[in-house]
Amino acid sequence: MTNQVKHPIPLPVVVVLLLFLTILCKTRASITTETEALLKWKASLPKQSILDTWVVLPSNSSSSSSKASNPCQWKGITCNNESTHVIEINLAHTGLNGTIESLDFSSFPNLLRLDLKLNNLNGSIPPSIGLLSKLQFFDLSTNSFNSTLPSSLANFTEVYELDVSRNHITGGLHPSFFPTEDSKFGWKSMQHLVMQDTMVRKMSEI
Questions:
Q1: 8 Å CB contact between 69 and 91
Q2: Structural domain includes residue 1
Q3: Beta 172-173 vs 201-202: how paired, if at all?
Q4: For residue range 51-91, what is the model confidence (pLDDT) as tens digits?
Q5: How far apart are CA 98 and CA 41, in angstroms?
Q6: For residue 85, is it within any domain?
Protein backbone atom coordinates (compact mmCIF):
# COMPACT_ATOMS: atom_id res chain seq x y z
CA MET A 1 0.00 0.00 0.00
CA THR A 2 1.19 3.45 -0.80
CA ASN A 3 1.09 6.06 1.86
CA GLN A 4 -1.41 8.81 1.12
CA VAL A 5 0.05 12.26 1.40
CA LYS A 6 -2.19 14.58 3.36
CA HIS A 7 -1.98 18.08 2.02
CA PRO A 8 -2.24 20.71 4.73
CA ILE A 9 -4.90 23.38 4.38
CA PRO A 10 -3.29 26.53 2.97
CA LEU A 11 -2.75 29.22 5.58
CA PRO A 12 -4.90 31.84 3.79
CA VAL A 13 -7.85 29.43 3.84
CA VAL A 14 -7.37 28.83 7.55
CA VAL A 15 -7.30 32.56 8.20
CA VAL A 16 -10.50 33.08 6.21
CA LEU A 17 -12.25 30.24 8.06
CA LEU A 18 -11.20 31.61 11.44
CA LEU A 19 -12.34 35.09 10.47
CA PHE A 20 -15.70 33.71 9.33
CA LEU A 21 -16.19 31.77 12.58
CA THR A 22 -15.28 34.84 14.63
CA ILE A 23 -17.79 37.00 12.80
CA LEU A 24 -20.45 34.28 13.11
CA CYS A 25 -19.90 34.01 16.86
CA LYS A 26 -20.08 37.78 17.29
CA THR A 27 -23.30 38.14 15.30
CA ARG A 28 -24.94 35.28 17.19
CA ALA A 29 -23.84 36.85 20.47
CA SER A 30 -25.32 40.18 19.39
CA ILE A 31 -28.75 38.83 18.50
CA THR A 32 -28.70 36.75 21.70
CA THR A 33 -28.00 39.85 23.78
CA GLU A 34 -30.83 41.74 22.08
CA THR A 35 -33.18 38.78 22.58
CA GLU A 36 -32.40 38.63 26.28
CA ALA A 37 -32.93 42.38 26.65
CA LEU A 38 -36.33 42.22 24.97
CA LEU A 39 -37.44 39.27 27.08
CA LYS A 40 -36.29 41.01 30.26
CA TRP A 41 -38.29 44.09 29.29
CA LYS A 42 -41.35 41.94 28.54
CA ALA A 43 -41.04 40.30 31.98
CA SER A 44 -41.16 43.75 33.62
CA LEU A 45 -44.42 44.67 31.87
CA PRO A 46 -48.00 43.63 32.65
CA LYS A 47 -49.06 40.53 30.73
CA GLN A 48 -50.49 41.61 27.39
CA SER A 49 -51.29 39.75 24.19
CA ILE A 50 -49.36 42.17 22.00
CA LEU A 51 -46.16 40.51 23.23
CA ASP A 52 -47.32 36.89 22.94
CA THR A 53 -44.91 36.22 20.07
CA TRP A 54 -41.96 37.29 22.22
CA VAL A 55 -40.95 33.81 23.32
CA VAL A 56 -37.98 31.51 22.86
CA LEU A 57 -38.95 27.92 22.13
CA PRO A 58 -36.82 24.92 23.17
CA SER A 59 -34.50 23.76 20.41
CA ASN A 60 -36.29 20.40 20.29
CA SER A 61 -39.74 21.95 20.03
CA SER A 62 -41.92 20.47 17.30
CA SER A 63 -44.03 23.62 17.09
CA SER A 64 -44.58 24.91 13.58
CA SER A 65 -43.84 28.36 14.91
CA SER A 66 -40.11 27.85 15.27
CA LYS A 67 -39.71 31.43 14.07
CA ALA A 68 -40.75 32.52 17.55
CA SER A 69 -37.24 31.72 18.73
CA ASN A 70 -35.92 34.42 16.42
CA PRO A 71 -36.64 37.97 17.64
CA CYS A 72 -36.50 39.13 14.03
CA GLN A 73 -39.88 37.39 13.64
CA TRP A 74 -41.46 38.89 16.74
CA LYS A 75 -44.25 41.42 16.44
CA GLY A 76 -42.88 44.95 16.35
CA ILE A 77 -39.26 43.88 15.84
CA THR A 78 -37.30 44.38 12.62
CA CYS A 79 -33.75 43.21 11.98
CA ASN A 80 -31.21 44.03 9.30
CA ASN A 81 -31.07 41.92 6.13
CA GLU A 82 -28.65 39.45 7.69
CA SER A 83 -30.83 39.06 10.82
CA THR A 84 -27.81 39.86 12.96
CA HIS A 85 -29.05 43.03 14.66
CA VAL A 86 -32.35 44.55 15.76
CA ILE A 87 -32.72 47.85 13.89
CA GLU A 88 -36.33 48.74 14.72
CA ILE A 89 -38.72 48.47 17.66
CA ASN A 90 -42.14 49.59 16.49
CA LEU A 91 -45.03 48.96 18.88
CA ALA A 92 -47.03 52.06 17.99
CA HIS A 93 -50.84 51.95 18.32
CA THR A 94 -50.77 48.64 20.21
CA GLY A 95 -52.12 49.66 23.62
CA LEU A 96 -48.83 48.70 25.25
CA ASN A 97 -48.85 49.14 29.04
CA GLY A 98 -45.93 49.66 31.40
CA THR A 99 -42.67 51.57 31.38
CA ILE A 100 -39.43 51.56 29.40
CA GLU A 101 -37.29 51.81 32.52
CA SER A 102 -36.28 48.11 32.38
CA LEU A 103 -35.35 48.15 28.71
CA ASP A 104 -31.57 47.74 28.42
CA PHE A 105 -30.80 50.23 25.66
CA SER A 106 -27.11 49.32 25.72
CA SER A 107 -28.07 46.03 24.07
CA PHE A 108 -29.22 47.79 20.88
CA PRO A 109 -26.19 49.61 19.44
CA ASN A 110 -27.64 49.34 15.90
CA LEU A 111 -31.20 50.46 16.58
CA LEU A 112 -32.39 53.00 14.00
CA ARG A 113 -36.05 53.43 14.90
CA LEU A 114 -37.92 53.43 18.22
CA ASP A 115 -41.64 54.05 17.76
CA LEU A 116 -43.87 53.65 20.82
CA LYS A 117 -46.47 56.33 20.12
CA LEU A 118 -50.14 56.12 21.07
CA ASN A 119 -49.82 53.66 23.94
CA ASN A 120 -50.29 53.57 27.71
CA LEU A 121 -46.65 53.88 28.74
CA ASN A 122 -45.75 55.89 31.82
CA GLY A 123 -42.87 56.63 34.17
CA SER A 124 -39.61 58.31 33.30
CA ILE A 125 -37.48 58.40 30.18
CA PRO A 126 -34.28 56.79 31.51
CA PRO A 127 -30.92 58.50 30.83
CA SER A 128 -29.62 55.22 29.37
CA ILE A 129 -31.78 55.84 26.30
CA GLY A 130 -28.98 58.09 25.10
CA LEU A 131 -26.95 54.95 24.38
CA LEU A 132 -28.95 54.57 21.16
CA SER A 133 -26.35 56.62 19.32
CA LYS A 134 -27.38 55.41 15.83
CA LEU A 135 -31.06 56.17 16.31
CA GLN A 136 -32.72 58.10 13.49
CA PHE A 137 -36.42 58.12 14.43
CA PHE A 138 -37.70 58.53 18.01
CA ASP A 139 -41.42 58.78 18.86
CA LEU A 140 -42.88 58.46 22.35
CA SER A 141 -45.84 60.73 21.68
CA THR A 142 -49.31 60.29 23.19
CA ASN A 143 -48.36 58.34 26.29
CA SER A 144 -48.08 59.29 29.96
CA PHE A 145 -44.36 59.80 30.44
CA ASN A 146 -43.83 62.18 33.34
CA SER A 147 -40.13 62.89 33.50
CA THR A 148 -37.82 65.52 32.12
CA LEU A 149 -35.88 64.92 28.93
CA PRO A 150 -32.53 63.47 30.01
CA SER A 151 -29.45 65.36 28.86
CA SER A 152 -28.18 62.09 27.34
CA LEU A 153 -30.51 62.74 24.40
CA ALA A 154 -27.70 64.95 23.14
CA ASN A 155 -26.20 61.68 21.88
CA PHE A 156 -28.97 61.53 19.25
CA THR A 157 -26.76 63.07 16.59
CA GLU A 158 -28.42 61.00 13.82
CA VAL A 159 -32.06 61.57 14.83
CA TYR A 160 -34.03 63.42 12.16
CA GLU A 161 -37.44 63.16 13.86
CA LEU A 162 -38.14 63.35 17.60
CA ASP A 163 -41.69 63.47 18.96
CA VAL A 164 -42.53 63.44 22.66
CA SER A 165 -45.75 65.44 22.34
CA ARG A 166 -48.83 64.80 24.46
CA ASN A 167 -47.00 63.55 27.54
CA HIS A 168 -46.53 64.93 31.05
CA ILE A 169 -42.93 65.87 30.39
CA THR A 170 -41.63 68.94 32.19
CA GLY A 171 -38.38 70.83 32.61
CA GLY A 172 -36.10 72.41 30.08
CA LEU A 173 -34.26 71.59 26.91
CA HIS A 174 -30.63 71.06 27.82
CA PRO A 175 -28.22 73.38 25.94
CA SER A 176 -26.26 70.34 24.70
CA PHE A 177 -29.26 69.42 22.52
CA PHE A 178 -28.40 72.33 20.25
CA PRO A 179 -24.94 71.81 18.78
CA THR A 180 -22.50 74.52 17.92
CA GLU A 181 -20.26 74.28 14.88
CA ASP A 182 -17.60 72.29 16.73
CA SER A 183 -19.92 70.15 18.86
CA LYS A 184 -19.55 66.38 18.85
CA PHE A 185 -23.02 65.97 20.35
CA GLY A 186 -26.45 67.48 19.85
CA TRP A 187 -29.35 67.19 17.41
CA LYS A 188 -27.29 67.77 14.27
CA SER A 189 -29.63 65.90 11.93
CA MET A 190 -32.96 67.10 13.37
CA GLN A 191 -35.66 67.95 10.84
CA HIS A 192 -38.85 67.49 12.86
CA LEU A 193 -38.97 68.25 16.60
CA VAL A 194 -42.45 67.96 18.14
CA MET A 195 -43.22 68.72 21.79
CA GLN A 196 -46.86 69.79 21.57
CA ASP A 197 -48.90 69.61 24.79
CA THR A 198 -45.96 69.16 27.14
CA MET A 199 -44.47 71.46 29.76
CA VAL A 200 -41.02 71.43 28.17
CA ARG A 201 -39.35 74.83 27.95
CA LYS A 202 -36.06 76.22 26.76
CA MET A 203 -33.51 76.67 29.52
CA SER A 204 -33.61 80.42 28.95
CA GLU A 205 -37.29 80.42 29.89
CA ILE A 206 -36.79 78.70 33.25
A1: no
A2: no
A3: parallel
A4: 999 998 765 554 444 444 689 999 999 999 988 999 999 99
A5: 10
A6: yes
